[in-house]
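sorry for the late reply, my laptop died twice this morning and i had to redo everyting from scratch. anyway the thing you sent over, i finally got around to it. pasting the sequence first so we're on the same page, its 132 residues, then the predicted structure underneath. double check i copied it right bc i was rushing
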Amino acid sequence: MPRTSERPAASASFDDMEVERDSEVHVKAARPQPESALLETPRSEARIAKRPRLDDETADDAWARGVTGEPVIAIADDLLRRLPLDHRAGFLLSLMDGTMDLETVLDVSAMPREDALRMVRSLFELGVVAFR
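ok and here's the structure:
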C-alpha cells in the first residue's frame, strides 16, 4: 500500500483559465493580417510585412537554375580546416570534386533539398565553393 505524504498539497501558482485566455490572445496576434490591416500600419512596417523572405526556397531554386558548371572547393585545404563548418556542410564539400553537377550533388547528399541547396548557396557566397 503506497504511503501518503503528511505535507499539504500546494495550490497552483497560476490560474488555468487566465493562461488559456492569454494564450488565445497571443495566437490571434500571431495570425497573418489581412491586406486592409497593412494599409492602416505605418508605411515602413507595411513594406517590411510585404517583403519576400530572404531565405525563401524559391530564391534558392532560382539561384540554382542560374548556376552553370560543377561545384569545386575554391580555397586552400588549411584554410578550409579552420572554418567552423558542421558535419553536413563537410559532407557536401566532400562531394564537390568537380565530377558532379549541382543537381547530382543535391541528390546524392540525401538531405532535404532546401537545406542542402541553402548550404551550397551559403558556401558559394562565402567564397568556399566555385562553379567550373
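The two ends are 76 Å apart (CA to CA).
thats about all i looked at so far, will dig more tmrw
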